[in-house]
Structure formats: structure tokens, C-alpha cells
Amino acid sequence: MMPPQENTVASHAAHTTELVLVTGMSGGGKSIAMHALEDAGFFCVDNLPPELLPHFLKLEQESGSRRRVAIAVDVRSAGSLPQLLLHIKEMRLQGVALRSIFLDADYDTLLRRFSETRRPHPLRAGVDDSDTHRALQEAIALERELLTPLRMESTVIDSSQLRPAQLRAWVRDLVRVSGSSLTLVFQSFAFKHGVPSDADFVFDVRVLPNPYYDRELRPLTGRDQPVSDYLEQQPEVRLMLSQIGAFIAQWLPSFGSDQRSYLTVAIGCTGGQHRSVYLVETLAKQFAYHGQVLKRHRELDAR
To answer: Where is the RapZ-like N-terminal domain (predicted)?
Structure first.
């Protein structure tokens, strides 16, 4: 039998048309994500304490508005995070259209962003403040430790290499698809700019013939027909596509039955312009039958 409070949360949330939880590392981009959701028509609530979630959802039910709701939760609610995790799991078991989005970034990026904005970290009060730089390092490490369980229950977006406009677009793409079944995400990237931390699978295609060394193809991308024609003629490319596609097709049903909300497949090449882009475009077409497929080009979208 479910605890009364969790059952109450689930029953109230079931009457909400769409519920998006936005969380993540301080400096990861939560404010940008919330602005994107607000622009998309969501009713946004910033830093709602988890213990107030049942009361908020009850009010939503009683109002009868059935509006789309986005709630931001950050590490300032650290003491209530275990309770929030219980709410998330119970709502999903009840079939609630809940999507939890976790905004993350690598360590160096978080340090740089705090240095640029000169804003204090919310956990700075809990660490030794005699050395400002060291205090920030310790605060980031502590925050990541506290939020790891919540990250594991969420759709992760690594904002390290993303411009604000990119992040807004990626968030809008996520909430356009239904939260009731698994969303398959194909993402191209450049190894020289780092591997996306939000990837579930990473495939390295730098061993494939590179259009970059063709002077006419160099300024183009994997979305351009001349590059596609060149890569389609390469036996190695066809073999790589076949093997990656077979792997995903084999395991996709298992991930779907595991009640996951997303699966991110990252394809990387040297510059993130030709080979990885072509493979992402092609795989997205191959798996269009899945219904909920997103494609991202980290380096191209940044232009």
C-alpha cells in the first residue's frame, strides 16, 4: 500500500495536463530553461519546496485549469530531496505525464560561469570560506553529490557547450514530445570539444573517411546532399550505420520497458560537422517509426 501522502500527490497530479520538473546544478541553466518553458505557455513556479508539491497540485486540480505547469527545484531544497524523489516515482507509477529535466555542466564550465557572474553559490555557507576559489570548488562538489539521485531520475541536458538560444531550443523540443513513452535522441558532437555528459551511448566515427579533406566538401555539413552522396558511397560508412542501427533496434524495446523517458545516442567525429551529422540525420530517419525521435547537432546549432 502506498503512503497516503504519495497517493495524494499522484491523484492530484493526474489531473494536471502536463507537469515538468526543472532541476540541476547551480549555473547549469535552470533560469534559461524556465524562461523557455514560460515562453512556450507553461505556468512556471520557481524553487517550490518539495513538501508543498501536494498542496500546489491540489490547488491545480480544484481550479480545473488543466494548464501545463513547470516547477523549478534547486539544491536549496536539499533537505527535502528524498521526499521529492518519492513523489516523482509515485507519480510515474500512477501514469502521470511528468518529465524531470536536469540541467548539468562540466566542472570547469560551472567554475567559469560563477566567476563571470560573481554570484555566490547557494551552498557556499556550508563550506570553508577562507579561500573563495576553493570554497566554490567544494560547494560544486557537494551539490553534485546531493543531486546525483535526482539526476538519475531525470532527462539530462549538458549545457557546457550550449549557447542560451540552443538550450532554450533543446528544452522546447523535449516538452513537445509526450512524456508517456521513451524519447530517442540522436546527437552529433565534436570530440575536440568534449563528449556530452548526458549521452547514454557514445559512438566514435572518426575512423570513417572524412569529407573535410575534399576541398569542395569542406565548407558543407552532413546535412548537405554532396556530403551525403560522398558518405553513402563509402563501404565503411554503410557498415557503421548498419551496426549502430542494429544495436539500437535490438535494445530499444528493453529501454522502453524499463520506464525510461529518454535515450540519448551521441555520435562523435573530429569537428562535429560532416560524418557525425550525416549519421545522426540518417539514423533519425531510420527510427522515425519509433514516433518520438529528436535530433541535435551540438556544434552546428552553436553557429
So the answer is: 18-174
Q: Evaluate whether 28 touches 161 at the Cβ level (below 8 Å).
A: no
Read off the pLDDT band of 17 (50, 70, 90). low
Could you tell me which residues come within 8 angstroms of residue 303 by beta carbon, excluding any fewer than 6 positions away?
none
Residues placed in the known binding site for GTP: 74-77
Residues tagged in the binding site annotation: 24-31, 74-77
DSSP string, the chain: ---HHHHHHHHHHTTSSEEEEEEE-TTSSHHHHHHHHHHTT-EEEES--GGGHHHHHHHHHHHT---EEEEE--GGGGGGHHHHHHHHHHHHHTT--EEEEEEE--HHHHHHHHHHH-PPPTTGGGS--SSHHHHHHHHHHHHHHHHHHHHHTSEEEE-TT--HHHHHHHHHHHHHS-TTSPEEEEEEEEGGG---TT-SEEEE-TTS--GGGSTTTTTS-TTSHHHHHHHHT-HHHHHHHHHHHHHHHHHHHHHHHTT-SEEEEEEEESSSSSHHHHHHHHHHHHTGGGS-EEEEEHHHHT-
Exposure string over 2-29, b if 16+ CB within 10 A, otherwise e:
eeeebebbbbbbebbebbbbbbbbbbbb
- Binding site members for ATP: 24-31
What per-residue confidence (pLDDT) applies to 2?
41
